[in-house]
Design goal:
This protein is mainly β. It has no helices and three strands. The relative contact order is 0.30.
Length: 46
């Protein structure tokens, strides 16, 4: 994460999101950045 990467997971399942097929509209995703900063987002369009 220190190199600029992020980890995105499904809030519902906790599984990693690696492709657009892993989510659907209205899903909530969590993106983890460096220094344990988290962003929670709702998928509104695919």
């Amino acid at each position: 994460l220190k190199r600029g990467y992020s980890i995105t997971t499904s809030k519902k399942t906790g599984k990693l999101i690696t492709t657009p097929d892993d989510i659907k509209t209205t899903d909530i995703i969590i993106t983890e950045l460096a220094e344990e900063k988290l962003i929670e987002s709702e998928v509104i369009k695919k």
